[in-house]
Prior knowledge:
The complex is a heterodimer of chains A (257) and B (408).
Chain A: H1 2-13, E1 17-20, E2 45-53, E3 56-65, E4 73-75, E5 100-107, H2 109-114, E6 119-120, H3 122-132, E7 140-144, H4 153-157, E8 159-160, E9 163-164, E10 168-169, H5 171-180, E11 185-188, H6 206-213, E12 217-220, E13 233-236, E14 247-249, E15 253-256
Parallel strand pairs in A: 5-7, 6-10, 7-11, 11-12
Antiparallel strand pairs in A: 1-15, 2-3, 4-12, 4-14, 5-13, 8-9, 13-15
Helix pairs in contact in A: 3-5, 5-6
Chain B: H1 28-37, E1 43-47, E2 53-54, E3 69-73, E4 77-86, H2 92-95, E5 100-107, E6 112-117, E7 125-133, E8 139-145, H3 156-161, E9 169-172, H4 178-189, E10 194-199, E11 215-219, H5 225-235, E12 241-244, H6 260-286, E13 296-300, H7 313-334, E14 339-343, H8 363-376, E15 380-381, H9 385-396, H10 398-404
Parallel strand pairs in B: 6-8, 9-10, 9-12, 10-11, 12-13, 13-14, 14-15
Antiparallel strand pairs in B: 1-2, 1-3, 4-5, 4-7, 5-6, 7-8
Helix pairs in contact in B: 4-8, 5-6, 6-7, 9-10
Amino acid sequence: MSVLVELGAALARGSVRVIDLSQTLSPRFPQIVLPPEFDQCAPFRMEEISRYDARGPGWYWNNLSFGEHSGTHFDAPVHWITGRDLPANATDTLPPAAFVAPACVIDCAAEAAQDADFLLTADHLRAWEQKHGKIPDRAWVLMRTDWSKRVDPVAYQNFDDTGQHTPGPDASAVRFLVDERDALGFGTETIGTDAGQAAHFRPPYPCHTYMHGAGRYGLQCLANLDLLPPVGSVVIAAPLKIQRGSGSPVRALALVV
Amino acid sequence: MSELQEPKPRNPVRALRRPTLPPGGRSRAALRLTAAAAEGRFELQHCFECATVQYPPRSVCVNCLSHRLEWREVSGAGDLIADTVLHHSNELYYRERVPLRLGTVKLDAGPVALAHLHRDCAAPSRVTVRAHLDKSGQAVLIALPSKDTPNMADDPMLREMTSDPKFRKVLITDGKSAVGQALAKALVEAGADIVWLGIAEPWKQGGGTPDLPQTERVPLDLTDEKSVRDLAGVIGGTVDILINTAELHRNHTIADRGTETARAEMEVNYLGLMRLAQAFGPAMRARAAERTGATAWVNLLSVYALSALPSHGTFSASKAAALALSQNLRSDMRRAGIRVVNVFPGPIDDEWNQLVPPPKLAPSALAKAIVAALRDGVEDVYPGDVAQDVMTRFRESQKVLERELWDQ
Lengths: 257, 408
């Protein structure tokens, strides 16, 4: 109990600060694009029910519509075919403990600025551990690329004729986090936990394939990772309790000292 | 006549003129004249018994009282036997437009008709009478020179009855599609003052927008209420012609997918039109009476809005919904004299009709048909062979057509 009392006092004092890791949910923020022969994730849309007018004189509210994987969002293992038969794999059955966890932040901002297709490898992770220590069990591993600073949706999505060009992990990095470490999940600032060109990797979409196959989670479209220390922060990211949901937008927060 | 000069901007301190309309009441018989004019045809009643051709339309033959009257197309050629100038009218609409030229025409088809008179016509001379929709959306007759004269389309009364893009400001709601691109080119060639190209989801690679001098890209996503309202807030008060080319088309039957695709098609094809109507409709209606005012609204529908093509089932259903909505829109816009033009193409030659055998409508041909519709002042257009064929069969027997579309 004393830990929480101390935390409460630290929050009140401001010595523990709360960082918002979330993008604003708005129609302007792009949604993931699949090839058009597949059905699509509905974009985030809001339509006014009333705004202190004839439709409702004293109140303002909206109807929302969006796919589960909209804005800053959480991927549950059931999202991928590799995780479909795992226990407690959906938004309503995930253990709540997974929603509050320490975070390791791997700074790839310089590399991503040089190369939009930059891939994080197991060697990068080992080098990071040399500096900052072993990735703790049940910790989020967050890939900082400063991609969230691309406020123009065209630059954020970064499509050309060969598809999307955004950084992400390669298969070796994901295998390392799953097999050699006990990472809780992988988080990115881009539209997905996998790189933009990951459809061409072996296996395709290695982060989705291995992470969810091992019952781990994903966070994407994160913001403000540049405000987090490499180690020592705590991330709070709870998906909505959607029945058999594959994911959910979250208000992702981080506690830092 | 002298060429129309680019109109000056409205004097902003002068009171906004409110729209007035010419008399719009018509008998049921006379509405058939309107129905033909809506598609650009001049039809008159022919008596089955005594072969008399009559005008104005009546319930029985003026010669033999037979009620067996058939509507058939006539050429409109005739002799202008008298012309006059009207200097006074108690009708507000005409009062604002006097002096008006009127003429009496002996049609080659038989009857004598009183018609609006083009400025380049003087009695006695050969003329061609056309039935045109006026600002009330009802057919009236106008006599035109039998041979084209310079700047013929610039006649003030003819311009009241048409929506020539010349000097007008046009919004194309999807400027990325092949149709939108072709249309932009055609409108610039037709002398449009500016063509705004709506761009949705700019991160998706589309055809490069043409580098035409009079075009400008604007963000517009019909699935997003805020996006539509934001654009209306910027240009809604200046759009003269809105052309809704935005459509989502997937080639699914109603059974081979869930509802995601069907919903997405409805979001663009049906609700998108509704969002446009709510955001742009009021502003366009408000300034319809200005000389430089709003004049037309074009909807790109599909001939399969009339009868569903099951192999493109969800698309057909969304276009049928859009047609019903467009009829409501026409009723609203009519009060301001703004013409709503519905375009019913058959398959367009694009990626979603890849497996549809020719003939397919080229985007450039569709663009040409839309510009022609604006110039001719028609309100229903069936461009291309497939559209003409489906429309004809629809009128012969909806039930036969329904069956015939099953395996196409």
